[in-house]
Fold this protein.
Amino acid sequence: MTDGTAGWLPLSAGERSVAIEVLVHGPLSRTELARRLGLSAGSLTRLTKPLIESGLLVEVPEAGAPAETRQGRPSQPLDVVADSGFFLGFKITEDTVYGVVTTLRSHIVARHDRPLTTHDPAEVADVLAEMTAELAKEHPRLAGIGIGVGGFVQDRAVVGESPFLLWRDVPLADLVEERTGLPVVVENDVAALVEAETWFGAGRGLDRFVVLTIGAGLGYGLVLGGKRVPFAEEDRGFGRHWIVDSNGPLTPDGRRGSAVSLLTIPSIRYQVRAATGIDRGYEEILALAAAGDPMPARVVDEAARALGTLVAQISNFVMPQKILLAGEGVGLMDVAGKTVEETVRDLRHPLAAPVGLETKVSDFHDWARGAAVLAIKVLVLGSAEA
Amino acid sequence: MTDGTAGWLPLSAGERSVAIEVLVHGPLSRTELARRLGLSAGSLTRLTKPLIESGLLVEVPEAGAPAETRQGRPSQPLDVVADSGFFLGFKITEDTVYGVVTTLRSHIVARHDRPLTTHDPAEVADVLAEMTAELAKEHPRLAGIGIGVGGFVQDRAVVGESPFLLWRDVPLADLVEERTGLPVVVENDVAALVEAETWFGAGRGLDRFVVLTIGAGLGYGLVLGGKRVPFAEEDRGFGRHWIVDSNGPLTPDGRRGSAVSLLTIPSIRYQVRAATGIDRGYEEILALAAAGDPMPARVVDEAARALGTLVAQISNFVMPQKILLAGEGVGLMDVAGKTVEETVRDLRHPLAAPVGLETKVSDFHDWARGAAVLAIKVLVLGSAEA
DNA sequence: GGACTTACTTTTGGTGCGAAACAATTGCTG
DNA sequence: CAGCAATTGTTTCGCACCAAAAGTAAGTCC
């Protein structure tokens, strides 16, 4: 089952950089690669040869721009053999396991979800193995599995602590490897999403990059020099102590006026419920706010200001080239993006370099995709460093 | 005059790392260097040979621990020839030029200040040349000059814009090189201080490091991966838009409740003057606050909380290994350090890794030393990258 | 069809490194 | 004091990697 991957490892530093560049930036000719990587043309011949022989790269006919006919010998673009291997990504939540199959390029080619009725580690591993078997029917050439879990993960293998699963020191990678025979990488869900975006998404090629996720909680990821910076508190809830407005609302989660109290979906729903007595869904609240209903509008406006304040603070102190907003709560940007941007502008030095703010509409399959990307990173390229 | 430096450049990457390690961490044996740099013993022989031949390094008798007599061949520590060259550092303020002479190790061996009665570029360059001549009497082996200026500096040579000197596009490096015959490096004062601390000071060997200076204004420096991150606004005043407390005081500088309004020396003096009608010095205000005088105590307390808030925000978003407080306003920490630390703790996640907060008592000669270090960095090691 | 342009390959030589053998210098032991 | 162990530093060799230059391939332009 792992035949396709046998010849991949190990890659030298030069080969790895070539493989990553092609993987991330699509078909590229050797000359173009030499330019991008700062290497000579000769080196590219040398570096690409083993990659082509091992089956990771192929020469493709010519890019989709045959109209642009230049003089001289036509270039010979190289591309990854996208279907030389598929990767599985799982995201485990309290009540559901979301699964995706992706290509080497991290394109999702299949989805499959399953309710989770137990939190017993062995039974969860059984569920994952069953889902793997099911997905393997359609895509037999599976090369590895990535699993994203909310919680503290050690060595990309052991779930050290997960509050919502009530796990402690569960060797999840081993459990799933035993059952599937595939190599498994386990990581914190936010960390996996951040790494995926750093590679294939909004953070591609950036030196300083921040990911902020809004959902049931807040997530924060910082990438410096292409590497994610680990935070001690990252898996026990960001933002509970980020006091944005000391006069802000008090909610069950987080401190008064904290980012969590102002921004997360449960806190926003709680505020509306506490004020009106009606339990409304998040999207419903956004729609009401957009329509001008005063109470939801006030809550949403406050949330937008809080988000703007956070973005400004991050910009002021980290100066990332881009900040990516992701998670199920980014609908806020559609309704109140203008307020967010105004707040950011107000709290930044007028001469400061503007920071790109990007919103990514995302569902749970994106988290699973993030886990799959981490598996690609570790298993194909033999290293987590980029 | 530059004989001693003739053979230094250029250094290969390996040689440079050896030179820096010895320069920064004192006498080290080849074996110890191999361990620290992750190189083989043989490479160290190769790399150290040209450095010794060029006179930058020497074998020194043995460290000050002859008691610790181990078995085997005794190690042969290498050290920089500290007096093989001296470096000049200048800090130009509105009314004074502060000058220091340092060794290669950045130890200050002489100081000399001069009032500045004119801001005419040529005359300022004359003053610098005269000070250089004077200091050269005692220390003839001058190898280079570093100059720190508040303002925007381009290419480490040209003062693009300096508000307090009313300069624009002044080729200061050229002007001083003409008059002294020495190589000159010009840099923004905060940037120079940050680089100096990154090398020889509190930031030695750290990956993520922040410098916050408090004085007439605020300065902020971010070092990631050993490299300083350039900020577009850095030379036009940090902190004017960092709103710490929207109900805070309104002062002539900065926005209401901004870090500048709460923390800088002029703002603190302004607040006390506005409330009491008496114009008091900064140190005097700190002393009164410590003694319990209500009005100064309130202003100082508010400043301490503001500082704590900033430190917490920086910690939360950047997660530096250390934050260094420097500048003429750090006396605040002596009087209200406890308040600062409490505020930081209050605004950090309880599980978050603690951030080292270090205070550096500094006067203007430290700024001059920073400029000298930058000259060492550029002139001796042939590169600003570490 | 010849001149030209661009892409890629091959060859050559240099650099920097580690591995391993070797030399040097001490302490320890009988 | 001779011999051994321990440790540091040196020399030699070979490998991995790269750039430069020369050569080859495959197209366009006139």
